[in-house]
Amino acid sequence: MHEVTPGEGEIIGDSPERTVELLAELDAVHATLSRFGPGRDGADLHIHRAHADVFVVLEGDLTLKVEGGERVVGAGTVVAVPPMVAHGFRNGSAADVWYVNLHMPGTGFGDYMRGLRDKVKVAFDQFEPPADGVGLKPADAIVTAPSPVEIDGVVVVLDDDGTVTVGDQLRINPKK
């Protein structure tokens, strides 16, 4: 099992509005820890064709964008967005939001984030939602509070102490 504590990863971005730390790049999962300041936009609506996008909200409220609207999820919530579900996110609140983002499998997410930071285009499994509406609907996303949630046979757990465990692949210890 790969274990990591926030502060031990690669800083992708660090500003008053946003902090993103790349915690793990394993074949099965790439993981980041992010802090978005009040009102900070994240990603517009997009789909992934070959991997699930999982959000584990540690502190504050994360606003998920889905076709037809938005949904606010709070601390302790695990959201698993399967392939082909259009989604995006932002911090719509007046306080910081902290969350772990898991891409399962990794599909090069770490390189994609570095590319965004360095202003270099990197091919990645992220696309505009289909114009013809083909794809899964928001109801196909798994929203659970509290955890665990199972994604393609891998169980993601947010423990009471803030530890995030991804099957037997990764354990993210709480902030110290």
TrEMBL record:
Coiled coil: none annotated. InterPro entries: Cupin_2, QDO-like, RmlC-like_jellyroll, RmlC_Cupin_sf. Pfam families: Cupin_2. It comes from the Bacteria. Residues 34-97 form the Cupin type-2 domain. This is Cupin domain-containing protein. It comes from Solirubrobacter phytolaccae.
